[in-house]
Every structure is written in C-alpha cells, then in structure tokens.
Amino acid sequence: MTLVLAYHDKIALMNLENNQKYIDILSRPGLSAEVVTAISRFKKEPDWMLDIRLKAYAHYMERPVPEWGADLEDLKDKNIQFYAVPGSKKKRDWSEVPDEVKKTFEELKIPEAERKYLAGVETQFDSSVIYGRMKEKWESLGVIFTDTDTGIQKYPELFKKWFGKVVPYTDNKYAALNTACWSGGSFVYIPKGVKVEIPLQAYFYIQTQNLGQFERTLIIADEDSEVQYVEGCTAPTYSTDVLHSGVIELVALKGARIRYTTIQNWSKNVYNLVTQRGIAYDNSKIEWIDCNLGSYKTMKYPCVLLTGNNSRGEVLSIALAEGKQHIDSGAKMIHIGKNTSSVITTKSICKQGGRTSYRGLVKVTKGAKNAKVKVVCDALILDDISQTDTYPYNEIYEKLSRIEHEASVSRVSENQLYYLMSRGLTEEEAGGLIVSGFIEPIAKELPMEYAMEMNNLIRMSMKGSVG
Q1: Residue 45: is it exposed, middle or buried by C-beta count within 10 angstroms (0-12/13-18/19+)?
Q2: Could you read off the pLDDT of 131-158 as tens digits, one per residue?
Q3: What is the structure's pLDDT at 88?
Q4: Global pTM?
Q5: Rounded to 10 degrees, what is the CA torsion of 425, 453, 345, 242?
Q6: Which pLDDT score, from 0 to 100, does residue 2 have?
Q7: What is the pLDDT of residue 241?
Q8: What are the angstrom distances between the C-alpha of 378 and each of 163, 381, 405, 408?
Q9: Contact (CB, 8 A) for 364 and 403
Q10: C-alpha to C-alpha distance for 91 and 133, rounded to whole angstroms
Q11: What was the pLDDT predicted at 131?
Q12: At what angle do helices 47-62 and 33-42 cross, to 10 degrees?
C-alpha cells in the first residue's frame, strides 16, 4: 500500500535548531506579521503563499469584530497561541502513534471506522496532521487525499489554482484570520469520472489551552466525479478559552457531486467561527450536512454558489444549545445559473438557557431563470428560559423563480409525553424519543456510525431536560 507522506515528515528530519528562531516566535501568544511570517517560513512555503498570508493578516486587522450574531467581545488575540509547533512527524502506521494520542483517537473509533467503512482518514492534533492513510484502491485511481500542508508542496499548480478562489481572504474577518494563520486541514482531488463510494474522513482535535486552530480544507471534484467527506471535531474542556476558525472550500466541476458532513462536538469553551462555501458548476451538486452539538459560541453558515446551469445545493443542519451556549448557524444559497435548485432544512434544540439562531440568505440573481428554493426552519424549546431566533434574508431579482419558506417553533407536547409514558417509557426516555424524531431528517443522511454517535450525544444531553 502506498501511504500518504506529509510535509511534516520532512520537517521532522530537519535539524530543528535551524528553525529555533521561528519556534521561539510561534511559542508566544498574540498575533503579528512576525508570527504570520514565522508560520510560513517554518513550513517552508513558497513566497506566493507568504504574500497571501500577510495581505490576509492586514485585512484581518482592518476588519471590525462582527456586532451581529454571537457575542465575541471576550475573544482576545493576545491570549491565543496561533500555531503549535509539531512535536513529531506525521505517522505512517497506527502502531507508531504515541500512546497518549492513540488513546484519544481510539475513543473516537478512528481505526475501527477506517477498517470497516472509510476510504481514507486524516487526523489533526492541534496544528499538525499526525496520522494519515488511504485505501490503495482509491490511490490507484488517482485520488488525492492528504493534509493541506502536503498539498501545497506536492501539487502546487492545482493547489494555487483553487486556494482562496471560493473563499477569498477579503470575505470576512475570520476568513482573513484563517488565511493568515492556516495550518493543516485536508486537500482532496477526485479525478474525472471517479466515484469514491465510501466516505473520506478527517478528525480535528484541540488539546492545548489558549490555542487557535485554523485548518484549511480544499476539495476539488473534477467532472462527473463523486465524493463524500466526513469531518469530526472535538476538544476537551479547559478553564481557558480556545479558538477554532476553519475555512472549507468545495469545487464541484461539471456533473460532479460533493457531500460534506461535519460532526462538531467541541467542548463548551471553544469559539467556533467557520466559513464553509462551495461552488457548483453545470449539472453538479453540493450538499452540506452540518451537526453543531458543542462549542461556547458558533458562527457558521454553509453556502453554495450555484453558478452553473442545472446545479443543485442542499444544506441539512442541526444545532443544540444549552446553558451559556449560543449557536448562530444557518445557510446561504446564491442562484446564478439557470434551472438551479436548492433546499435548506434546519433543526435546532435549546434548553437550560441556551440560545440557537437561524441566519440564512437566499439570493436569486437577475437571469437565474426557473430557480427553485425551499427553506424549512424548525426549532424545539425545552424550557421557559431558552431562546431561539430566525433571521431569514431573501433577495429575489428574477421573476421566473419559485421560493418557499416555512418556519416553526414548538415545545415538547404534554400529550406526546403522556402517550409515550403510558406505553411504559419514563418521562426522560419519552422526551429523548421525541427529540430523536425531531432530528430524524438529519440523522438519516449520516453514515450509520455517525448517526448513532449523534443520537447518543443528544440523548446524553437530554438527561434532566424534560419535565
């Protein structure tokens, strides 16, 4: 089997004393042009990438902190370490991974998942990819699945062609931050006509206090190809805050299909500020399946640019907020080509004082004839102290289009609880069953192991929430 070789392997073979000046800079908290330069120089990137990083840093410093969405007032750059120097090379075999790291990912079932279901796996621990492997079958067909640091070194022309084209650094403040400080993430290319039948998978894990993690994922599906990608995110609980600011760019060329699934289970002290966007060309389809079950503050709005004729986009998302959590999430669909269609389905649950917000944009540009849009937003509130909001924005500039939008807010019905309890369930079990039914449209679209994980996480969080 040919194994993925990350650029971190090469770093591990170098004399780190030659990089000591960069290590000293990167070990300190705070953000500056010096830190951004040190990241790029430490990773031996081409000059054009350093130039982009520095421009993005300048733009980040110029842009104000958003005053809409989640409250980010307490998020301070001076407290954050923006890059964690990798302590060892990326491992080629699971048996070589350090025990303390292995224990973490054994609990996440990565080796088992790889053997049974997955075409490939990448895991990112803080700022570095530590373990990567892909099934030989897909490598033989020309599929590229590696970490982004390797992508820029081994496939520079393909990487440069698409990096920042879907999400430019000028898009928003935190896209600029990611572009300035990005490290790790996944780089995927699916050749023409290749259909990867089982999911590729990545896991991102934060273990360092006050760490910023800025993975950059770029997926390119060439003409008439198909790929499913599953991303899992997690972090332990620390007394100090951490920042996750990722950028995901998807490119679906003519006739291609991409399904991108995120299972987010960050600890409840993580600021999760993510930009996710895909561009769909003629007859292609992009699907986002987005599960937000953790973090302190989340701002995330998966988007599809339907530029091609007959292109399709779909977002299925779920959010769960409790206590001091505020999950501000939603979707964006921009219709540009003719005969395009999109569907947005969101489910949110809030309890024990938590807050969920749906923030969505549907835009049908002039000339996007026969666009079809359907938006469904459902919220479930489990007590009297929680809050849910809906902020839909519809901009329609083409008369020959059809737009549907519906929203609902509900509570767990006493009649439903009574009926289920009369069948022998406890009140807690009955409440959990109602919630499971509420999220069923999302769960059924997940691979089985992830659907079970999500249901178990939600079931655990429901303890003591009903009644």
Answers
A1: middle
A2: 455 567 777 889 998 888 889 999 999 9
A3: 43
A4: 0.84
A5: 120
A6: 27
A7: 57
A8: 35, 10, 11, 5
A9: yes
A10: 9
A11: 47
A12: 150
Query: What one-letter code names the amino acid at 387?
Result: Q
Encode burial over 277-296: b for 16+ CB neighbours within 10 A, e otherwise: bbbbbbbbbbbbbbbbbbbb
Write down the residue that tokens 């986002």 correspond to: 288
* Cα angle, residue 377 at apex, residues 376 and 383 outer, rounded to 5°: 150
Q: Order of strands across the sheet with 257-265?
A: 128-134, 120-125, 200-205, 226-234, 257-265, 285-292, 312-322, 341-351, 371-381, 401-411
Instruction: Give the separation between CA 419 and CA 399, rounded to whole angstroms.
Output: 47
Cβ–Cβ < 8 Å for 252, 220: no
Residue 453: per-residue pLDDT: 64
Hey, what amino acid is at 423? R
The distance between the two most distant Cα atoms of the chain, rounded to a whole number of Å, is 72
With a cut of 70, list the residues of the chain below it in pLDDT: 1-18, 86-135, 203-212, 233-241, 413, 447-467
Q: List the structure tokens of 276.
A: 């996710």
The pLDDT of residue 8? 39
pLDDT for the residue 260: 94
Q: How big is the chain, counted in residues?
A: 467
Q: Report which of 354, 351, 359, 456 is spatially closest to residue 411, judged by C-alpha positions.
A: 351
